[in-house]
Amino acid sequence: MKKSVLAMAIAATSVAFVGAAQAEVKVGFIGGFTGPIESLTPPIYEGARLAVQQVNEQGGILGGQTLVMPSADTTCSDASAASNAADRMVNTENVTAIVGALCTGATVAAANSAAIPGGVVMVSPASTAPAVTELDDNDLVFRTVPSDAYQGEILAKLMLDKGFDEVAVTYVNNDYGRGLSDAFVEAFEAEGGMVAENVAHEDGRADYRSELGSLSASGAETLVVLAYADGSGQTILRQAYESGMFTQYAGADGMVGSSLIEAVGADVLEGMIATRPGSPELPGTDIFAEAAEEAGFDPTAVFAAQAYDAAFLLALAIEQNGSAEREGLSQALRSVSSAPGEVILPGEWEKAVELIAAGTEINYEGASGTHEFDENGDVPGVVVEMVVEDGAFVSKGLVDL
């Protein structure tokens, strides 16, 4: 009798534990919490967490379960750290999907080492290099940010339109830097510009005076730095200024951060030109901005809106898929992000759940774009001009080709 009671108690406890485990649906976040983009990562993470918060406040996911977001650090620059972060998400946390990574090298490493073998969908809000397009990923790797093949072309057009027809370029020697440099140089020279010198550099060094000497010897007075605000980018700009080598600076999304200005000096960088992916004028843009401000983070922070969209899209896809299983999620992601379908805007979780339950097709139009994924998981996008004015990067609006 005692054994029977004990067996029943154990069985009941086991059921309770299974129920508890099933009460949570996990979408992981992996990003560069330390390393060369550590000052850019917090608002990106907060963007994703805002989507999770809204899902839970509006009844939860899959019949009232709680959506949770475990996180891990890729460091941005260490492929083994990225692989370990992804392995933890896929095989220990047993996440259904992943928001991330942020730096392209981290995304490639995480995808190849853990996510693709584990059948886990990844949506990066920040990996912009063309290398992501080239992954053999079984339709598992997506991104809510446009490729640098487009941003590099836009930066080239912007510089030429402003009268800078001769430049020197230095880029961080990884997938991000190489891809962006290739796109920029090709477009710049095709439109009649002259790249006087193009020099790769390794991230994380204390001294770039040798590279700067070669760049300066080219005779160009404008230096384009394609690197990271918390890494080589700030060291190069500081040493270039100290050496009096250039009169104008330019960069791309990895350089757009307040930490760069704080480290190098507002007076030094006054007038610096940069580009970054932006958000088109859609209803979701203002809705997200208001929600982000209420949540206490800057809605205009680089990649924050893209991270929100990545997390919200994954939640919609899981709901559409009908379970927390990984299988079928990429097809569901394509379904909820594409026309035709009733439009879902940021924050409209309850509405989406009701429509999905009724068998109605939905089409999410987000905070940073419409996200019609192509066959490679890429999206069209828009690019914003940024200029340093009075100690801050200030948006000057969208730039078109």
The gyration radius over C-alpha positions equals 23 Å
Overall pLDDT confidence: 93
Q: What's the CATH architecture of the largest domain?
A: 3-Layer(aba) Sandwich
How would a textbook summarize the main sheet?
7 strands, mixed
Q: Which structural category fits the helices and strands?
A: alpha/beta
CATH top-level class of the largest domain? Alpha Beta
CATH topology description of the largest domain? Rossmann fold
Tell me the name of the CATH homologous superfamily of the largest domain.
Answer: Response regulator
Q: What is the domain tally?
A: 2
Spatial strand sequence of the major β-sheet: 8-7-9-10-11-14-15
Compute the number of strand runs.
15
User: Cα distance, first to last residue?
Assistant: 80 Å
- Secondary-structure element series: HEHEEHEHEEHEHEHEHEHHEHHHEHEEE
Shape: elongated
What percentage of the residues does DSSP assign to strands (E)? 15-25%
The low-pLDDT segments are 1-21
Helix content: 40-55%
H/I helix tally:
14
Query: What would you call the quaternary organization?
Result: single chain
Organism: Billgrantia kenyensis
Keywords: Membrane, Signal, Transmembrane, Transmembrane helix
Signal peptide: 1-23
Domain Receptor ligand binding region: 46-381
